[in-house]
Amino acid sequence: MKVSNTETLTPMRHLLELLSRVAPQRPLWVNAFDAAVTAEQIAESISVDASMVGSRIALMMPNGEDLARSLVALDGVCEAILLLPSGLDESQRDSLMQRASIDRVVSHLADIRCNEELAAKPSDRGRLTRWILATSGTTGTPKLVEHTLATLTRSASFDLTIGAQHTWSSLYNLTGFAGLQVFLQAWCGGSKFVLHNDDATLAERVERMARLGVTAISATPTMWRKILMASDAAKLPLRRITLGGEIADQKILDALGAVFPNAKIRQIYASTEAGVGFSVRDGKAGFPASYLDTPPAGVEVRVEDGRLFLRNPDTSQRFIGNDARLHREDGFIDTGDRVERVDDRFEFLGRANGTINVGGNKVQPEEIERFLLSCDGVVQARVYAKKSPFTGSLVAADVVSSGQLEKTELRKHLTSRCRASLDTHKVPAVIRLVDGIETNAAGKVLRNAG
């Protein structure tokens, strides 16, 4: 059964009401206690205090299920919803809320619930709620981008028949663009979505997803490398694999294909600012140059001076709280990503604002990471700037060993390979062997200087 997106986008409750009629016992999510929650149960438990009508709400909820229920309840009722990322200190939260003109903070589901006499009326639930998200960059202060449910679900499938065949989960936090995308993809298709306890380790999450029969997972390439290292990884019955948020190199694509031969692998190019741009399904790193002439899914792709630009049909998203323009006059968005054409394909080089300045020479950390990951004995890598009184910065690297080589031997092997293959200014001055690579809430490698 296919559902018209014009019938379901505003608000989320409309789709819930439809599912409650046609598939009331269909589980829409599994909470952290492994309890399946049906469309009917969600519909019966949602009530919103009338004081929420037209307000600008900041959601700050550690519990994923409470956050999901709040999103369903408040969309169409509030003027705006700000999803506060985890890991912010009080001053950062206050700054984001001030920029978004927030007038109310909700940290518990009980804060929005009420008895029937005080509930918002059906006539109060049809407004176009603005969803405000913070960018998930690995450096700098987050920007705020305003979306609508339409821009967030631009690439979602509203086929309830296909949706019933999948159980989704992700390693992203629901407060970020990527995590919200996966949740809404599952929601719009009526798929079951497995929520996790934020305190659960990666190994615990992988074991749980395997036990609950998760068939579709979305994560960054860094998180996929960590998943493959988990003891229960091969038990996952995956049929759909999605990578996004970082550059996917050929090594991780090939590794996923080998471990999960029955899964369709898709790379998603998307960002908080641009929304979903395009996807690549051919199993190759980068994207086809033909995308410039034949826009995928109606999203125009342009490369100017080695930078990637996108133009979506819907340009309603915008920055909040500053004077920066999200779109150029012609509607294109500068993604900030550097790309290079190699034959009939474009390869991603890295973020334009993430280069390391080594004595006037620009080094793209992602390039060095890809090289290190191609070396035997390396399963994860992080490249970053290390301050130097002589050159301004030096290239430094943290690597996680596969255990094939002894630590001293691996360090010598990597140094020798780098010196033989890389320009002198690109060779890491320091290579540290570490137990793991730190990531942010979006699953991206943190690139703060060492």
TrEMBL record:
Q: Where is the AMP-dependent synthetase/ligase domain?
A: 131-305
Q: What class does this enzyme belong to in the EC scheme? A: ligase
Task: Please list the residue ranges annotated as the AMP-binding enzyme C-terminal domain.
Answer: 367-444
Q: Where in the cell is it found?
A: Membrane
Q: How is this protein positioned relative to the membrane?
A: Peripheral membrane protein
Output the PROSITE patterns linked to this UniProt entry.
Answer: AMP_BINDING
Q: Which keywords are on file for this protein?
A: Ligase, Membrane
Q: Which InterPro entries match?
A: AMP-bd_C, AMP-bd_C_sf, AMP-binding_CS, AMP-dep_synth/lig_dom, ANL_N_sf, ATP-dep_AMP-bd_enzyme
Give the Gene Ontology MF terms in alphabetical order.
long-chain fatty acid-CoA ligase activity
- UniProt KW Translocase keyword: no
Q: Which GO terms describe its cellular component?
A: membrane
- Please give the SUPFAM superfamilies that the UniProt record associates with this protein: Acetyl-CoA synthetase-like
* Annotated pathway: Lipid metabolism; fatty acid beta-oxidation
Q: What is its EC number?
A: 6.2.1.3
State the protein's name.
Long-chain-fatty-acid--CoA ligase
Q: What is the organism of origin for this protein?
A: Rubripirellula amarantea
Gene name of this polypeptide: srfAB
